[in-house]
Design goal:
This protein has nine helices and seven strands; from the N terminus they run βαααααβαβαβαβββα. The chain has about 250 residues and is α/β, with parallel strands linked by helices. It folds into two domains: about 170 residues, HAD superfamily/HAD-like (Rossmann fold), CATH 3.40.50.1000; about 80 residues, Orthogonal Bundle (DNA polymerase, domain 1). It starts with a strand and ends with a helix. The relative contact order is 0.16. It binds xylulose-1,5-bisphosphate and magnesium ion.
Length: about 250
């Protein structure tokens, strides 16, 4: 089976969006809606245990804010907070505040030129993906992807495999003809759960997580003048991820 498609996670994989993007947008939303909540970098690292913004707000209230008395319309408040957070996040992406990680654009361009298909499978809201890729990858980059699987289209978010299974079904691909690229344990559990061989490029919050089952763990995808560090696995002596290396890995895992 030859390598036909690459399926990318978004947050932490395409760009380091959590600490300086999502976290800042959540805090702006809390302020705008009159709450005195503020998520610092360390707390946010703990909150990342739960994927999905609305789910994360609920987790914060349950586990980290015991004194808080939920109003009767708490469900509506969560929805309003999340909508406000998305508006702030999209505005930040439109200012081009967060760059893509090393190698992301280069590898996607190489894949497109070679006819290897691209897709996205993420927990984040669809508008967030569009805003990030339009402003950091290319204005027409939505059309680069056969499928953008995002947000609430599946009720069970990562680590459940559902978002990857949804993407595979929508595109009509078998897991064995694809590779997934992830940055977190929750992401790897999701992609492996869908049967996808997975490459990990760690991000600032996920460096020390357990990536059991991934075929390789790297610092990032690397660039010709900016080599990656190999944290686990064999990179065939290469210093940056290109299609050649992906084909090599794919042949070894299948
Ligand atoms: C990222 C997430 C998301 C974002 C917030 O997952 O866990 O919850 O932090 O996004 P992935 P929303 O790495 O799979 O992209 O607020 O839009 O849910
Ligand atoms: Mg991620």
């Amino acid at each position: 089976m030859t390598l036909n498609a690459l399926i990318f996670d978004v947050d932490g994989t395409l760009a380091d969006t959590e600490r300086d993007g999502h976290r800042v947008a959540f805090n702006a939303a809390f302020k705008e809606l009159g709450l005195d909540w503020s998520w610092d970098e360390a707390l946010y690292g703990k909150l990342l245990a739960v994927t999905g913004g609305k789910e994360r707000i609920r987790y914060f209230v349950e586990k980290f804010h015991p004194g808080y008395e939920k109003p009767r319309d708490f469900d509506d408040l969560v929805v309003a907070l999340h909508k406000t957070k998305t508006r702030h996040y999209v505005a930040m992406m439109e200012e081009g505040r967060i760059p893509l990680r090393p190698g992301v654009k280069r590898l996607m361009e190489e894949a497109r030129a070679a006819g290897v298909r691209l897709a996205v499978a993420t927990t984040t809201t669809p508008e967030n993906v569009t805003a990030l890729i339009k402003n950091s990858l290319a204005p027409d980059s939505e059309s680069w992807f056969d499928v953008i699987a995002a947000g609430d289209i599946v009720p069970a978010k990562k680590p459940a495999p559902d978002i990857y299974l949804w993407a595979l079904e929508k595109a009509g691909w078998k897991a064995s003809e694809c590779l997934a690229v992830e940055d977190s344990r929750n992401g790897v559990l999701s992609s492996l759960g869908a049967g996808l061989p997975t490459l990990v490029t760690v991000s600032n919050y996920t460096e020390r997580e357990d990536f059991d089952g991934a075929f390789a763990v790297l610092s990032d995808l690397g660039e010709p003048d900016q080599p990656f560090r190999v944290l686990k696995g064999d990179a065939n002596g290469k210093s940056y991820v290109d299609l050649d290396l992906l084909h090599w890995w794919h042949a070894r895992v299948n």
